[in-house]
Amino acid sequence: METVKPLDVASGKGKLRRTFAKVINIKKQTGVVPEGDKVEKVKKSQEKVKLGKDLAKKNAANLSESFDKLEEEYEKRLSMEALLAKLFATVSSIKSGYAQLQYAQSPYDPAGIQKADNLVVSELKTLSELKQSFLKKQFDPNPDRILVLAEIQELSSLLKTYEIMRKKQECQLKLKDSEIMFLKEKFEESMNQNKLMEKRLNQSGQLCNPLAHNLHHSALNPSHFVTYLHHTVKSIRGFVKLMVEQMKFAGWDIDMAADSIQPEVFYYKQDHKCFAFEHFVCKIMFEAFHLPYFSTESSSPQKKSKEMFFERFTELRSMKTKEYIASSPKSRFSWFCRAKYLQLIHPKMEQAFFGHMHQRNQISACEFPETSFCTAFVEMAKRVWLLHCLAFSFDPEASIFEVPKGCRFSEVYMKSLTEEAFLSPPEESSPESEPRVAFTVVPGFRIGKTSIQCEVYLSRSCQRRPIR
Hints:
Number of domains: 2
Mean pLDDT: 79
Largest sheet: 3 strands, antiparallel
Order of helices and strands: HHHHHHHHHHHHHEEEEEE
Radius of gyration: 54 Å
């Protein structure tokens, strides 16, 4: 029979203790607390969650209200912008309609006038409707669409307005072109009539003969000389004008050419530079005017008598220039024309004007060709020669004078060709700024005690700025 072993009480107690310890540790790790504390903490947690939810609901309500207000303000502003855009588009349409109405009146277009009138009335009604909408705050529910349509309407109206303006400008341009053509035709007609009249006067001898046919040497007085001097200067200026036109046609620099004749001169106007060329021509043509026959060639006292010079004046003034030269190629007058032409017209100038030297070779042989340039020169030379003969018909003979550069202006001996020289501002008036003689254009003459003023170009030494 087997013996019964006693239980190990001590080891059993140890196992139970270890089991309780594990359970307690697990509870600590999992947060399991006694029942009373657990209920209290759960209540606090629920209160916090409830408070957070209430706060979140409140914030969400506030945000929603703010968003609604912003959206409402944005919609109002967008609606107002759409209304203003439609307003401006309507005004542009009225402007376009009014432009169409004006355009249809000239030339008169009844259909166009009716169409433009209907457009203006329709747009005025639209303006009235927009006013009522604004007062009643009845805005369009789709402002984005209205903005786009208003912009399209405004651009279309502007395009129509510009198109009408273009048509008007084209009509005005055509009208101006017609006026220009008409004026050109009138100008050409007037020029042809002037040339025809001048040709007839030359043929009749009246243009070259400003003095009376029955004038006798005994009745000669300074007024006759002044009259013929006026016609001589007129002929010189006609030739200068033709010469400047030839320079421009040949491509010459007119400013440079004028400055080469009279350097460092202030011209008040661009057209005044023609006086430099007139000075050049007069200087050549009147050179040696104080000598009998423009030369130092000796002659007998009989040939130098006053009556003889007056007879030569009377003889030549009634004849055609070309015929006289052809009949007397070796006469003093023919020699004078030949010498003055070769002196006045440089070979380079003639080459530039005509592209050849044939005319110069002919004139060197005392044969003057039938060209407008040569004819103008011969007529000018004839008047200078006749003025010279008339000057030596006086007793004592008329003398010539000119004023040197830089002299003060004197109304007794000078005549100014520029009124601008006397129109200086008061603050610039001083003895140093007074107008001075830049150069003599046409020389003056003395006949006994009578002085005939020379024509001068005045300028101011303080004014050296370029022409505008």
